[in-house]
Amino acid sequence: MPSNMASLLLATVLSFGLILISTYAFQLIAAARHRLPPGPLPLPVVGNLLAIGRGSPHRSLARLAERYGPMTSLRLGVVPAVVISSAAAAREVLQRHNASLADRPVIDAWHANGHRANSVIALPPHAKWRAMRRLCAAELFAPARLDALRPLRQRKVRELLSHVSGKAALGEPFAVREPVFTAAMNILSRTMFSVDLDSGPASSSLGRGLSDAVKEATILAATPNVSDFFPAIAAADLQGLRRRMRPLVVDAHKILDELFAQRLLDREACEPPKNDMLDAVLDKEHEEQQEGSEINRSTIKGLFTDMFVAGSDTSSTAIEWAMASLLNSPQVMEKVKGELRSVLGKKAQVEESDIAQLPYLQAVVKEVLRLYPPVPMSFYRAEATVQVQGYTIPQGTTIMLNIWAVHRNADLWADPEKFMPERFMDGDIDFFSSNKECKLIPFGGGRRVCLGLPLAYRTVHLILASLLHEFDWVLPEDAMGSGVDMTEKFGIVISMATPLKAIAKKKRDL
Ligand code: HEM
């Protein structure tokens, strides 16, 4: 009996080994036959997962690109992937072949409580996703609505400045990220439903509940998940990420239900309209309820949840990197403050309409987003097989666009590691329509270009200009010699590993 058991075990191990080896050999032959981009040899089972490195995947992938070229083939568990690291290849993905390459890979945790079915981040680029994007372009992020909501952004910035004035009065260093995060988050939540989301006396318990759920969900969303690399075992949810995500999605949707209900009561009570995004979707609800419409209350809840996940940290992270870069480059700091002085004079508060007159400030923001793109990589999935730069990207391949690597490519940028806003003063590179070259792509591109770009653009410029116009900034004594520690921490955004601490000085005190 024991010898039978041993034979059975041996046969099982041998057959399993044989399956692995033949799958592996099959993959290598298929790669050669299809003319896939070059890449490191995948190991059995794990493929190239170990080559990615958890700490800074954008950096390890950039190193692979130096060795294998701007299109690198990888196998992540059983999932075939191609990494894109040059502007020329990015152009093919974001423009020429975008119709076939704009799907997203399946992220298992996103399935929690059925969220994927209404997620603008995760849906395939078909009817429902198109309807959501149309609603955003025509209504929610339409220039007229964002213009009408200008006063609320000014108000949130005034609150930020008054908070920083308090810190300035103390003369002590403080973590710049915290009040900036609160301001950017509240601008987003006020734009959506006129409620402050982050902590502070004005924030409601609903707001805080939503903020907490979103913060936790972003941590889970950034955790590598074995289910995504081995979809056949995804149902087992081995790391429990989908299970842990579920109550967060349920909470977020419950809070959004309450916000909808409250607004309907306000309307019945003839309260004046707020003209925020919630009003916009309620105004359109009768159209949405028509037969065949892709948009309904569940879709809107999915859309709002995603906006928070994608928009909560990004703008404030960009502003923190900007302040750190300026504090490390006194000449650039002086120049940008000089521009603010000469354009704004003694004007009490910066306004969004001033941004167009501040080309050097705009160049500083571009340079910060080039060197420190808050979202360093974007992910797509090929819906059809396409040929890019002579290589095949087979249907079903995950495409990893390494935005960070494109932004630091020495063939495109002189002194790519150097903080040099002047490089943007002559050209016509911007984040919007004229960015045909795909050299500067912090908001991604093509059909899936960042949905919050119009709001993020206004928020980042307005907050940064206001902080610089109102205060002078110095580093704490212990950081004066060494400068700011610019080490990155990878997550759903790349943030500063050591949060920036600085001292604000009200200008008239100097
Ligand atoms: C400086 C700030 C921001 C940066 C750098 C940024 C960057 C990005 C990037 C790189 C993508 C992926 C685009 C692609 O796949 O091609 C993206 C997508 C997205 N962003 Fe932003 N973002 C910012 C702010 C915001 C804000 C404030 C919001 C919300 C209002 C937002 C909402 C979204 C959404 C919903 C998507 C998914 C779009 C889709 O898949 O169709 N983002 N963003």
What does this structure look like?
Heme binds at residue 450. It holds the Pfam family p450. Its cofactor is heme. One of its GO terms (molecular function) is iron ion binding. InterPro entries: Cyt_P450 (IPR001128), Cyt_P450_CS (IPR017972), Cyt_P450_E_grp-I (IPR002401), Cyt_P450_sf (IPR036396). The chain is α+β, with helices and mostly antiparallel strands and 510 residues long. The chain has a single domain, classed as Cytochrome p450, CATH 1.10.630. The protein has 20 helices and 11 strands. It has helices spanning 2-34, 49-52, 57-68, 87-96, 127-140, 143-148, 150-170, 177-193, 205-221, 226-229, 241-268, 277-283, 285-288, 297-311, 314-328, 330-344, 359-371, 403-407, 453-470, 477-480; strands at 71-76, 79-84, 174-175, 377-381, 386-388, 391-393, 398-402, 471-474, 488-489, 495-496, 501-506. The strands form 4 sheets. A 4-stranded mixed beta sheet has the order 1-2-7-4. Strand 1 and strand 2 (79-84) form a beta hairpin. Helix 8 packs across helix 19 (453-470). The longest helix has 33 residues, at 2-34. The radius of gyration is 25 Å and the shape is globular. The model has no long low-confidence stretch (mean pLDDT 89). Bound molecules: protoporphyrin IX containing FE (HEM).
